[in-house]
Structure formats: C-alpha cells, structure tokens
Amino acid sequence: MTRLTPTRRAAPILFSNYSSVFSSGGRILPAPRTNARRNADVFAYGTLTCVSLLFIAFGISQSTIPELLAGFVRIIRSTNILITDYIALGGIGTAFLNAGLLMLAAVGLIAMVHVEFRGITVAAVFLMGSFGLFGKNIYNVWPIIFGTWVYSCLRKEPFSEHVYTALFGTCLSPIVTEFAFVLHIPGSTGVTWGIFVGMSVGLIIAPLAAHFKNVHKGFSLYNIGFTAGILGTVYVSLLKSYGYQAGSNLFWSSGNDLLLGGFLLLLFLFFIALGLFYSRNRIPAFRAVLAESGQSCTDFVAIGGIGISLMNMGINGFIGMAYVLLVGGPLNGPTIGGILTIAGFGACGKHARNVIPVLLGVVLGSMTKVWNINDPAVLLAALFGTSLAPIAGHYGWAWGMVAGFLNSSVALCSGVLHGGMNLYNTGFSAGIVAAFLVPLMEVLSRKRRLPKNIRL
Questions:
Q1: Region class of 114: left (phi > 0), else alpha (psi between -120 and 50), else beta
Q2: Other Cβ atoms within 10 Å of 203 Cβ, number
Q3: What is the pLDDT of residues 339-353, one digit of tens each?
Q4: Quick one: angle between helices 35-61 and 257-278, nearest 10?
Q5: Are the C-beta atoms of residues 202 and 153 closer than 8 Å to each other?
Q6: Each residue's pLDDT tens digit, 9-25
C-alpha cells in the first residue's frame, strides 16, 4: 500500500484531474499508477462494491419479489420531488434495493472509464445511494448521465473527465419523472420529453458548474447542488410560464428506528473496523485529515489513505445518526440519505471538527426560530447543511455555527425556486450562504491581521 506522509499543513489535494467541473474546472492528466496504487484501487472499489451488495441484500431480505416489483412501479411512476421518502412510498425493501442498485451502477460506471480511486469516488457512489432512498431511481437517472456523455463527445474529451459530473448531476432526475409520468402528456410523448429534458440537463450542467464554483470558492462541498438549483429554477420558471403548477410533496415514514438503526450501526462499525485493519500510521494520518479545512473537497484518500478515510466515514456516520436520534427525528429514507452523505464525504471534505459546528448552528436556530428542530425540512437542512463544513474548518467553529444557523433558514425557502426538482436543495442554499458569508469572513480576517494603525 502506498501512503502519502501526512503533514500538518500540506496543501490540499483536490480531484480536479477527474472532475473538470466539481472543483477546479481544469483538465489535468492523472499521475502514473504504480502496482501498489492499483492494488489499493482494487481494494477500494471492492469495498464500495461490497457496500452496494449489502444494501441490495438488505432490501431483498425485507420484501417478497412481488412487493419489490410493485414498489418499483410506485417509485418510478410517482412524483419524486422533495420530499419523497421511498420507504413510505415503496417500502423498505424497494428503497434499499433501489439504493444498492444505483450504488453498484455508479461503481461500475466509474470503474468502466478507468478512473483512479479518489475521495470523490466515495462521495459520488454514496450520493447515488443516499438519494436512491428518496428521489433517484433506476429509471430517472440515465437520461442525465447520457446527456453528460454526449457533452463529453461534443467536446471531444474522455468521459472519465466528466463521469462525476454525470453522477452528481442526477440530482435533477425528478424532472425526468415529471415529464414522463406526472404531467400526463398523452401516449408515449411524456416519456420522450422526459428523456429529452434529462439529456438537456446533462448537456449543460458541466459548463455551468465550472463557472459557479467560483461563487462560493469551494466553501460549499455540493457545487453541483448549487448549480442544479440555478438550473432547476430556470427550468421550473419556463414550465410555469406554460401553465405548470409546482406542487409540494411529503412522503415521510417513521417507526423503523430499531431495524434501520441496527443496519447503520453495523455499516459504520464495518467502516471503522476495516479502516483500522487497512491503515498504517493511524494517529498522525488521522490528525493530518482533521487538520484540513475540507475546502474544495480535499481528498482525504490521498492524504491519509483509504483506511483512514473509512475510519473517518464511520465516525461521521455515527455523528449524523446521533444527531437525528438526539433531536427526536426518525430514521427513514431522507434522514438516512443525509447520514450517508455525511459519511460519504468523510473521504473528501468532512470530519468531526468541521461538521459538528454546522449542526450546532441549526440547534441554536431551533431555540429562536419558529420551526421545530425535528421537522422534516429542518432535519434535512441540518444533515445536508454540513456542505458548509469547510467554513468551520477554515474560519473556526464560531463561523461554522453561523453558517449552520443561516442555512437552516435559507434551505427552507430555496426549494420554492426550483419546485423541489433539485434533490440537492441544501447544496443550493449552502452555495448561497457561502457566497454571502465568504466575502465578509475574508474582510474580517484581513482586518484582524492588519496593524492597529491601518484601517480598511
């Protein structure tokens, strides 16, 4: 196994070489791969494959084949806008089987284009699984992925440079379902329109994301979510001008905490145990990860290795799970999706030191605002609001709490703009909050460093 020697303040290692829009927007050729690096990749991809199969097995164990098929019909043909809990709509078995199949498809797609394993690989796979529990399904993601592939062909660039954009861009997949089944367009025209609109999303989201990343300067980890919020707002505005009535949705299950909590407990313990087994120089490597701000999705796999990243993912997962249970929320499709997202980004940007302040900011907001801390939208705003973790990592806990406090309000209003079509709604709101806060934080930080006789 190869390891990079961890340092206290090494420059963050980003994944710009594989995602031309997610972080840097540039095209950088991957470094030569050694045999040890290839072996590490095999282990990492094998781990993600096992996790995908675990979700599939758990889903199959919870329902009969007829129940699974009926559940898939419901989740594919029903509106998938926020908040659509697939456990409530299709059952536990269907929800987890769908999530596992999407994760497995993501692993296969990334491996097929021969992309070297990075932290962003984990995040992409886990986001497919997370939202496979509410909003993404085995039908509505493919037109967007295909559209991004067409974009890479038109640009005469390898799809490997855009595969992560394709996967993250499926956050707008509910728009495919809306056209295909919800708008009741006669005949097969709706399905055709759904495919066409989904492809158009995949075609244009890459160049937009490359531009919008500069707005928040990498202090929101969900750049595609911010981009999709802008894009979704434009699409929904056009639809409204032709008579489309944006609705609201709330499928929200409860009462499965013991079963689902047991599943998550075993999953996160597995991550920690496997990470301990595979990692070397654990303490200095983990300290090196904790020393990073996480800005622009710092690659923890490159800094500490896959073992340390797995340990961090398990710890993050327990933090998210503990938050939901402590505030009195249920474990269901959306909240587990949020927990898995925190865990997945434990390989590229999130750790205990920068996640907890954002969650505390939401708790602080619950003491003064008109909503309850365990309301569905607020729970998701807290879990997915950890997109702003780099603010706490770079500027400190106080600013991290401010970010969480503000985002808990913005996230509740931003969904109206895109009609719930953008599944990464909190990524949209986090981008807005980061764009608002970063200039202020930079000015205040510079002012503190200036001599007393100098004023801005």
A1: left
A2: 18
A3: 999 999 999 999 999
A4: 160
A5: no
A6: 333 333 333 333 333 33
